[in-house]
Amino acid sequence: MQTELKHSKLEKILKLAKNNGASEAEIIQSSWTENPINFENNKLKTLESNQSTGISIRLIKNKKIGTSSTTDPEALEKVVTTAVEASEFGPIATFELSKENLRTQNQKLTNPELPLENLVERGTAVIEQLKTFHKDLLISGGFNLGYGETIYLNSNGVTGKREKSVYSSSLYAHLVRGEDFLGIYKGKSSLEDFPDEKEISKKIFEKLNFSKENISLETNKYQVFFTPDATASIFGYILAVIFNGKVIQQGISPLVGKLNKELFDKKLTFIEDPGIGVQKADFDDEGIKTQRKTLIKNGVINSFYFDLSSGSKLRSQKQDYVTLTSTGNGFKASLSTSPTPELTSVLIEGGKTDSKDIIKNIKDGIIIDQVLGAGQSNTLAGEFNVGIDLGFKVKDGNIQGRIKNCMIAGNIFEVLKNIQEISSDREWVGGAELFPGFLIESLTVAGK
Predict the structure, then answer these.
(1) CA 75 → CA 9, 24, 87, 199, 228, distances in Å?
(2) Last residue of some domain: 149, 174, 204?
(3) Both 181 and 234 in a single domain?
(4) Do both 301 and 438 map to the same domain?
(5) Mean pLDDT across the stretch 394-406?
(6) pLDDT tens digit string along 38-63?
(7) How many other β-carbons are positioned within 10 Å of the β-carbon of residue 437?
(8) Measured CA distances, 277 to 149, 152, 190, 199, 285 (Å)
(9) In terms of Cα–Cα distance, which of 433, 8, 27 is closest to 238?
(10) Which pTM value belongs to this model?
(11) Strands, E assignment, 41-137
(12) Residues 270 and 353 in one domain
């Protein structure tokens, strides 16, 4: 469908909604195409592309919210009728829809070209290179090119369009040696081109070499260096939860009443920047402009992030958390769900020392790179209790080998209150988190 035809359909849905008694209505139409090139256990597996397209409507009738969605572009009347009927039992609307003009891109989305043959050759070559480590090493992963657009329109005349292409490269190496299972994953995403699979392979090969020897670890206190991947899995995940405006509004975040309080190390600055990374977005799924915001500034709780619902409820309670109803963070997990507060791309500012130099100065410690169970702890209390899926023992600045069957637990309000070092070098984790590594002076690691 051409963009003009899409807008014609969207405007027709809005008119139907108003004719059925809605005071306000908004429409989102999303289309997305995936082009995966997957390898599994050293062999090419799939080359099939898939496409999804759908329409979602949210309306307000008699001050109640009704929503509906469909993947059938011809079911316009039904999607409106369903939303109107749902509004009879829907939640009370505590907000009005956006009236703010958005930057609309008028150019037609051009489908990016997938260099299929070249990528198959590149994937095969990198697998052959990794297999030189061990004849039984199995490699999975590959490349993916996703592209699409999201069109927003509401009855207040607000329109906007987001479009992007996301290029991803990933590799997973696993090796079974008796009862010992070793798995190493590394992936990257970009808006410009496929991330260099050779660089990904190089990092995996380095970790494979570090894993040649298994080191027994006694339960004790150690210096712990969290790589950017581990920093994102543990600390990034918890911070995203406790700064969520819905959790703040419900009064269950440990940060309630802590605005402008210094709860973390002064070295820590945590920022959301919707202008960078693969989650880049000019506006959210409620037609609100996104904005760069500093959530933690030099250890101080500086702001939270809200959608229309959570922000409006706090304003009605005359809380001082927000000056606007929304911070432009209302996103839908899928077309069939309602918007909820979500972060776009986030970053943590780097420190002064390179991670390699930080590790060289570790006397007796460990490196944590991959963890298991990061989301299974009491996150709302800031707690983590995770298994170390991939970690290494460091003695006098030298990596001695891989540690197995170890756990680490803590609370971010204690751990991130005393950060010994934040690395100056940062990595994109999943294309949406630009994180450094953290060195913590002393943490208890449970060995076996």
Answers:
(1) 11, 20, 19, 47, 46
(2) 204
(3) no
(4) yes
(5) 95
(6) 999 999 997 888 998 999 999 999 99
(7) 29
(8) 16, 21, 7, 19, 18
(9) 433
(10) 0.93
(11) 43-46, 50-61, 64-70
(12) yes
